[in-house]
Write a sequence for this structure.
């Protein structure tokens, strides 16, 4: 999806765009592809290796030429009788070819351990891609809610400025009619200035929120986006706290990564110990030879055999490497327990915030209705001359606060829901229900 200079965008579009443009996720996916080829390479150890070589030689040796020269004196006369001369071989050529087959029958557990290691490394990278995807979803969702809040605060501030300006006009008219005072006009001018300053701050926060979201989406500096989704409750949570905890222990890639890392360390331990275990291999070879100077055909031969090797003492190096992996296994187990405790805290915190904001939404919605009606009545009383300007100002302030409280409650609920979804991760659609 292309982003124009200014374009509204939904939350779902934002998440999809972020996953497509995020460089860290792209690198993780490339590493995943690479690990797939690493596994293919490891699997080739189960097959024998077959190689061939061929060579053609043609030439004349320097020793034969020296022997021929030694049979003549300085004047070129032959000094050795023909019967006693060593024949001078002329140029000769040969062709040789070899076909070799090698296979490791037993590697002390190294070969299967290397295959399992490659499989677990692939699994670990798949979990890393999953973790990054979930993290990007959360970051973008929270940034989108920040933008929604910034947009809403601008609207609330603009409404406050409009209301204050209207009250100021009413106050000035009452002063001109002799029913108001200069002090009331000045008081309302101060109130309008304060509301205008609040609007300026809200506009600044809105620009920052837009830029922060654009940075997460990896968009150009000229791109500017706005939130297209309305501010409403994002959905309901159908799981209890205990169910959420149990599901998170099954779903979280971070926990699975620690278990996979533990398996990787165990396989590396096996590979380290294989260095001091017996190794057995078999081989076979076929040779072809042809002397190009004769009229005979090819000569052939073969050889088969087995090789046994056992480096049963290396000064303790293999055992030292194995002990290192034992410690890494213990570290992975400790990290698993620590990560599990952190996940439990995240879920308990988000679950508590979700319930708290759900109650706050009802209270804030009721307070907003009351504040709107109170301002309407205060304005009518003031215009009728039976109310005070202070009453109108107070009710206007209360209305602005009620609007902000409702906004904070709804977005607080949505943020808690997003954090809860991330804390559990990989949820089926039935666990989070959209609220129409």
């Amino acid at each position: 999806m292309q982003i124009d200079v200014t374009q509204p965008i939904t939350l779902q579009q934002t998440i999809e765009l972020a996953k497509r443009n995020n460089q860290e996720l792209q690198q993780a996916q490339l590493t995943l592809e690479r690990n797939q080829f690493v596994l293919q390479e490891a699997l080739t150890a189960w097959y024998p290796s077959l190689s061939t070589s061929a060579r053609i030689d043609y030439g004349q040796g320097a020793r034969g030429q020296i022997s021929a020269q030694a049979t003549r004196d300085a004047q070129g006369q032959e000094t050795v009788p023909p019967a006693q001369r060593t024949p001078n071989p002329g140029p000769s050529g040969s062709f040789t070819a070899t076909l070799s087959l090698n296979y490791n029958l037993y590697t002390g557990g190294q070969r299967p351990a290397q295959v399992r290691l490659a499989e677990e490394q692939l699994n670990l990278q798949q979990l890393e891609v999953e973790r990054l995807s979930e993290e990007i979803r959360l970051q973008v969702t929270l940034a989108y809610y920040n933008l929604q809040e910034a947009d809403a605060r601008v609207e609330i501030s603009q409404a406050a400025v409009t209301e204050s300006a209207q009250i100021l006009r009413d106050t000035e008219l009452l002063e001109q009619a002799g029913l108001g005072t200069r002090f009331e006009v000045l008081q309302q001018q101060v109130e309008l200035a304060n509301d205008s300053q609040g609007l300026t701050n809200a506009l600044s926060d809105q620009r920052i929120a837009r830029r922060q979201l654009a940075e997460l989406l990896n968009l150009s500096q000229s791109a500017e986006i706005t939130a297209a989704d309305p501010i409403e409750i994002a959905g309901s949570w159908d799981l209890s706290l205990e169910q959420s905890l149990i599901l998170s222990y099954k779903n979280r890639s971070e926990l699975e990564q620690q278990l996979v890392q533990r398996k990787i360390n165990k396989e590396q331990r096996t590979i380290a110990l294989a260095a001091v275990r017996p190794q057995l291999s078999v081989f076979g070879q076929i040779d072809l030879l042809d002397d190009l100077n004769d009229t005979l055909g090819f000569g052939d031969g073969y050889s088969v055999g087995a090789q046994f090797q056992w480096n049963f003492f290396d000064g303790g190096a293999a055992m030292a490497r194995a002990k290192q992996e034992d410690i890494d296994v213990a570290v992975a187990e400790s990290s698993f327990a620590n990560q599990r405790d952190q996940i439990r805290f995240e879920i308990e915190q988000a679950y508590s915030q979700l319930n708290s904001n759900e109650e706050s939404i009802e209270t804030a919605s009721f307070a907003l209705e009351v504040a709107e009606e109170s301002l309407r009545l205060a304005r009518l009383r003031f215009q009728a001359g039976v109310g005070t300007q202070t009453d109108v100002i107070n009710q206007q302030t209360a209305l602005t606060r009620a609007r902000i409280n409702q906004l904070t409650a709804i977005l607080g609920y949505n943020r808690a829901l997003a954090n809860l979804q991330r804390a559990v991760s990989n949820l089926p659609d039935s666990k989070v229900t959209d609220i129409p």
In short: The longest helix spans residues 110-176. The chain has a mean pLDDT of 87.
